[in-house]
Design a protein that fits this description.
Layout (H helix, E strand, L loop, with lengths): L2 H20 L5 H10 L6 H16 L8 H9 L3 H5 L25 H9 L7 H4 L5 E5 L13 E3 L2 E7 L9 H4 L3 E3 L2 H7 L8 E5 L6 H9 L4 E7 L2 H5 L1 H8 L4 E5 L16 E7 L20 H21 E11 L8 H10 L4 E2 L8 E3 L2 E4 L1 H4 L4 E7 L3
Parallel strand pairs: 5-6, 5-8, 6-7, 8-9
Antiparallel strand pairs: 1-3, 1-4, 2-3, 9-13, 10-13, 11-12, 12-13
Helix pairs in contact: 1-2, 1-3, 1-4, 3-4
Bound molecules: S-adenosylmethionine (SAM).
């Protein structure tokens, strides 16, 4: 592909990503993979270059742009080499018209910025929300120790974590294939510590997805005890069992839940869990640095629906916890309506329950819990609270 054909390919991909964000369709990564499956003539250098153009364009636009071309023009506005590739030659994009306007750069839509401000995330922290994220791994002690990895740096307060140079081809490492390491953001590892998981416990990971936190819990439990991983999404949950097998996590049981009727298959767990970890579905405002196009998918209505689901899963958690046990409530969002406000509202509905004081290797106290932010902690953004049921 010529350099200008790569720019045109990026424009076409951005058009597909914009439409998918508007219609809640496939993720950008999936669309990029699909695009190149249909264009076998593109070599690995072309793929990498197009992907970089696409993500550079997405990263600098907080608001969903009107078209892929407007998004790429915003990139060209600050990069004369890209602007010069709008030459209309061969498969390249048409020359830039005199009255053509580029999409407006920004961190997030205006309505979202004001919610971040109301949630005490100051403007000085906004740029870090969309910077490139590092590649963090967790060493899985359920498998033999991995050999040293080139360029790996320790992460303060997390003896089981390492930060790898960006661009490390993790999937090619034997340690990854053997399940001795897992890709997991340091923030995700830190908030999981609030579960105080230990051998012999009975723990439910209620919103387990494909099991990122389930596997960390199994390792902390040393494969002793009972660990139930549930979710309402069949596709995500079905990825958990093979991952657990690879990681050597033998105590994990999975159960698919029916939305709205979750407790029907959880009768044997009512009032008996030492801990229910609720990594609730959320807006993901803390993970924009990994999924920058997620900003284009949000709306006030969508957040309202997520807040309602979070309230719902918290109530299910309350049914499962034994007297003296705890819910660990986690969201990868920085909005108070999903985090601190949601946890405070739970405490208001459940007299006697109390927020435990948490000591974690990073983060700052925020409402009844702790908040981690990319700007302050160099992790994804999270809110976590440990809500303890009276004995
Ligand atoms: C933030 S993701 C979980 C990520 C996962 N814990 C991890 O560490 O990789 C939230 C999950 O909640 C699930 N979910 C949504 N509604 C649910 C419900 N009513 N009960 C259980 N899980 C639900 C979603 O399908 C999604 O997989």
């Amino acid at each position: 592909m010529t350099p200008s054909a790569r720019v045109q390919a990026a424009i076409e991909l951005l058009d597909a990503i914009i439409a998918a964000a508007r219609d809640q369709g496939a993720a950008a990564d999936t669309l990029i993979a699909r695009y190149f499956t249909e264009r076998r003539y593109a070599g690995s250098k072309d793929r990498r270059a197009v992907r970089e153009l696409v993500y550079a364009a997405i990263r600098q636009l907080g608001e969903r742009p009107r078209s892929g071309r407007a998004a790429m023009l915003a990139l060209a506005a600050n990069d004369s080499e890209i602007a010069a590739l709008f030459d209309g030659v061969g498969h390249g994009p048409a020359p830039i018209g005199a009255s053509e306007t580029a999409a407006k750069p920004g961190v997030a839509p205006e309505w979202m910025l004001s919610r971040l401000e109301k949630s005490d995330v100051p403007g000085s922290e906004w740029p870090a929300l969309i910077e490139r994220a590092p590649l963090d791994i967790r060493i899985n002690w359920l498998q033999p120790a991995p050999p040293p990895i080139d360029g790996a740096e320790p992460i303060a307060g997390l003896p089981d974590a390492l930060r790898l140079p960006s661009g490390t081809n993790i999937e090619a490492l034997d340690a990854y294939k053997d399940g001795a390491i897992e890709v997991q953001d340091a923030g995700s590892q830190i908030v999981t510590l609030a579960a105080r998981a230990a051998p012999g416990m009975r723990i439910v990971d209620l919103c387990a997805g494909a099991g990122g936190k389930t596997l960390a819990l199994a390792a902390l439990m040393g494969n002793e005890g009972v660990l139930l991983a549930t979710d309402t999404d069949r596709a995500r949950l079905s990825r958990l069992a093979p991952r657990a097998a690879r990681a050597g996590a033998t105590i994990v049981e999975t159960r698919l839940l029916d939305p709205g009727r979750e407790l029907e298959v959880l009768g044997d767990w009512v009032g008996s869990a030492d801990c229910v970890l609720i990594d609730a579905p959320c807006s993901g405002t803390g993970t924009w640095r990994r999924n920058p196009e997620a900003r284009w998918r949000l709306s006030p209505d969508r957040i309202e629906r997520l807040v309602e689901t979070q309230r719902h899963v918290l109530e299910i958690g309350a049914e499962l916890v034994r007297p003296g046990g705890a819910i660990v409530y986690i969201v990868c969002s920085l909005l108070d309506e999903e985090g601190a406000g949601q946890a405070a509202a739970f405490l208001g509905r459940h007299p006697g329950w109390q927020a435990a004081s948490l000591t974690l290797p990073a983060g700052r106290a925020h409402g009844p819990g702790i908040r981690l932010t990319p700007g302050h902690d160099s992790t994804d953004g999270f809110f976590v609270a440990r809500l303890e049921r009276p004995c």
